[in-house]
Amino acid sequence: MQTILVVDDEVSIRESFSLILEGQYNLLMAASGETALKTVTDQKVDLAFLDVRMPGMDGIATLKRLKEIDPNLEVVMVTAVNDVKNASEAVKLGACDYAVKPFDVQRILKLAEQILRKKNILKEGDLAKQKAGRDLFRLIGNSEKIKTIARTIESIEGDEPVLLVGEHGTEKELIANLIHQKSSRAKTKLQSLNLSPALSTQQLKSLFYGRTSGSSTVDLRAKNSLFDETKGGTLFINNLESLPEEIAKVIAAKEFSRLGSNRQAATPVKVNITTRFIGGATQSLAEKNQAIFNFFSTVLIQIPPLRERTSDIPLWINHCLEKYNQLYAKKIKLAPAALQVLSDYDWPGNVDELEGLIERLVLTCSGFLIEVNDLPFELVLKTGSEAGKDYLSLFEAAYVQKVFNINKQDKQKTASDLGINHLVLETKL
């Protein structure tokens, strides 16, 4: 049974969700953002319904931290009618949808069913590929920078630590999987962990070291450590900037004390580690904690952002289009002008942003062709491409004509409303 977390400070809202969803899903409740973070840290959650406005940590801040802890967690924002703007802003930050109070029972049921069905399809697809022995992970691109990364991956031998450095949204987890696949531990489990600044050192110690029964007054259950769960496998740690130095030293020493116990245990786990940063190649982690950087950078791989390897962008676009056509049983194509606009965009969110957009375009396309006017307006505006300029010119002409018609062909009033003089207006009509 899949697990849904409801995060709302109002008891009545939590009870409403319970009445709607209980019996169909494993339901968890949290009255605050802080409690939600602890819940998602302690156990696997498939979907969260998250209130936008809560005392203390609000929904937007909670969303950001939940996605840092578990990027695969699906989140639906819950909002009042007068707060839809914040909910739609949250969708840009990683929420998959939003629901407006008071609830439409069928809307909630449909959202949960659709979102969780999609997760199941993705999971089943991955399992089918594994069973068929197909290569799940491959580098996309033909730029020299990607070829250099491929050569570095091939050269890695043994179980030395690896540090992957790249901006948010670059292919860090993909590369970690490639390293794991070619290692002697390929038949064992790779586990990914996204650290979050929201987690205290004590919470991280519980996560990494585990705990014995009765070691905590908050939770009396025994809990395995990450080292137990990945024994003989690979642990990929993302957002290494948030790793306390004392835990890094434990990893280096290959022994730890479980919380509530003084017994030492060996930790024979290969650790592939990355840091997320914006700016210089290694400046963020090196400046924040030189000791952690030095230990984990035995092998250092720097992943360039998409804007520095523009020849790879069309290849990623086609890869994602093929992937989501297959997933949703569609045959959507990109118009050449739309492909040009997407190729000219600088993708500040890198591959994650690109893949998310292509998935949305495939899902929402009602025909068989994605045109420039199907793309987000702000994206088209930023590219400055010829195809984008043509589209913007058409948009501008249509808008001017619409205002002109609303004003009953009164040129003086139209020019005034548009903030232009009558001579400029004449050129646009």
From TrEMBL:
Gene3D superfamilies: 1.10.8.60, 3.40.50.2300, P-loop containing nucleotide triphosphate hydrolases. The keyword Transferase does not apply. It comes from candidate division WOR-1 bacterium RIFOXYC2_FULL_41_25. It holds the Pfam family AAA_lid_14. This is Fis family transcriptional regulator. GO terms for molecular function: ATP binding. Keywords: ATP-binding, Nucleotide-binding, Phosphoprotein. Residues 3-116 form the Response regulatory domain. The modification 4-aspartylphosphate is found at D51. The keyword Ribosomal protein does not apply. One of its GO terms (biological process) is regulation of DNA-templated transcription. InterPro entries: AAA_lid_NorR (IPR058031), CheY-like_superfamily (IPR011006), P-loop_NTPase (IPR027417), Sig_transdc_resp-reg_receiver (IPR001789), Sigma_54_int (IPR002078). Residues 139-363 form the Sigma-54 factor interaction domain. PANTHER family: TRANSCRIPTIONAL REGULATORY PROTEIN.
